[in-house]
Amino acid sequence: MPTRIESVPKPGLAHRWGAFVAAHWRTVLGGWAVLLVACAVCVPVLESRLRAPDFTVDTAESAHARQVLADHFPTIGAEQDVVVFDGHGRSVRTPEYQEAVTRALTAVRTTHDVSEVLGPFDGGPINLIAADQSSAIAIVSLVGTETRRGAIADEITGKLRRISSSTIYIGLTGHSPQQNDQIRVGVEDTTQAEAIGLPVALLLLVLAMGALVAAAVPVGMAVAGIAGAYGLIFLLSTLLHFDTLVLAVATMIGTGVGIDYSMFLVSRFREELAHTGIEDRRAGVRRAVAVTVDTTGRNILASGLIVMISLGALFVVRVPIFRAVAGGVAAAVAAALLISLTLLPAVLAGLGHRINAGSLPARFQPPDTRAVRGESRWERWAATIMRRPVVFACAALGVLVLSALPLAGMKFGLDAGVQALAEQPSGRATQVIEQKFASGLLAPLQIVGTTRADGPLDAEQARRTREFFAKIGDDHRIAQVLPETVEGRAVATVILRIPFDSTDATDLVKSLRADARKIGESDGPVLRIGGATAEYVDFGNEITDRSALVFGLVLAASFIFLIIVFRSVLLPIEAILMNMFAIAAAMGITVAIFQWGLGENILDFHSRGFVQVFLPTVVFAVLFGLSMDYEVFLIGRVKEIWDRDGDNESAVAAGLAHTARPISTAAAIMVVVFGSFVTAHVLEDKQIGFSLAVAVAIDAIVVRLILVPALMRLFGRWNWWLPSISGKRFPVRRRRVNRKVFLLKPEKADRM
């Protein structure tokens, strides 16, 4: 039978906070009820504020070109969209067809903030009637902010829907119409993923916790946390630009950490409740809540702070979408922490021993919740690792290195998500354009020619600019070049034959920029290339330039924070190296699935031959923080025993035995929650959900349950080494808190 070891009570701030919440649990529940209702009211307003993903780099060439267009070429507008007409074989020359075109374009022209409309019969510089004479297009120029253009696109789409018929289809596509549809698809994908992930997570919790109520509480806290996260994101939406990608990532992270944090706390509460030794049941419940907050509560606070510290590094990337991801996910983690450290202790205090209601048979109960604790399979697993640490460490490292090998051939690109819109209004219009017109018509390049101070060109500069525009028209990737001059400044709208988000298109932008720089030598014109493809190129360059800084900030901040938490130098180094191995392995598998296309049929996508350019940086920042959940939870429990007992081997074995079940359960839940997003229609959501799910599985199984215990066994007392400053060693405090810890039998530890 395990030996019970009592520690001397020494209440700290966390212990007192837990006791306070337990004593005033009704007030806390009432306050949270009001807050959550307010957050729920904010959700529809937040969804109405969602905008298109903003990949613009603040100081990039494409951003400068966009500003020049807005300032000096008002007729072009801030955006050009396309009205599509498809007669299903009926000729555009029939009276019925021409009447439909006239009605549609009249409706578009009378829409506020539409600056110009070029119809198929207006005789413009570009042929707007398809070769089969059954389809036609019109070019629509919009002005205003991005939010305003989205509203205009919705208004025009509604007008055209009322004019469209079964014989003549009329629809709108372009940047804003597509982004409006992507927002709708993204919200639907997030709702669908939650509908899949939460029920499966509840089932896993029932099996892991061995009681229905104990399993339902973490799911309820996760739902409350998501509501709280949406409330915080709503407040931040006045400062930051949020889109459906941010909402999807925040939802998956918030759900995962919300369930994990709550499950860890509920598990510790039930353990303390089973061994409280106090006859007064209410006093025993209050003490169990206080000890739970003082121990596991400290650990989840540390892990949550590490997640937010890691996310903070994304702010150095000068792209709005990175700031939005960092802010949105940080809000989700902050909400999960607030719920876990305030609402959940109040719920536990209110439930008391009813947390065990709906218990499964005894054989399904966690050993720590039993009054008499026998040897578990996790104790036997810990003993096995302690006996052969070198074998297990080498095997785990071999798996990680093998999984990371595909990284050697990783390629980057940026998929605009057009494939996900096939069933949406803009998607149908896009299909007509791709089949019967130049596929790059929806997002042309725009080359702006000015002086270095954005002034008008002189005669020589204008001549060089015209020659450049004429020369690029011979490129086989370009369908047409449409030059225009306004007050001495030149612009060329370049329509591509290739998809605007393809690698061929980005290669074209790079070659055009190289040629433009040569034209600008010797006091020549300054030719700036803008448009969606150019923005993607600048976005990729910014990520490449800033990734090393992001990685360095995350590593440095995490190292310092972990030294403070663990009071050790070696353990933070181990944690950082193991995290990097796990992330590399996860990204390697992601490359094999999405770049090589090994999972196309299973996951229902078409490989573009690359992974999203922002994926490694975002996944690194998010996962580096998330993986610390298990590290802090495992090492925190080991340190409890080490601080009290001073026996490294026994502490590692007992810490692993106590935490392996909740860690494996938490990882399984995270995998389910993140993995549910592979059902999304948008490719970037699939890639993020898949990579996070794989990384969590690798981190929990290979790293935390095998590699970390094996290395800690090998390093022995060096795990807890802390160097001295000015010849005086930092004190390693043996902190005693008001709790009971159950260790393996001494004779069993000796055999390890």
TrEMBL record:
It is a multi-pass membrane protein. PROSITE patterns: SSD. Residues 205-350 form the SSD domain. GO terms for cellular component: plasma membrane. This is MMPL family transporter. The chain crosses the membrane at residues 23-46, 200-233, 245-266, 300-321, 327-351, 390-408, 548-570, 577-598, 610-630, 663-682, 688-707. It comes from the Bacteria.
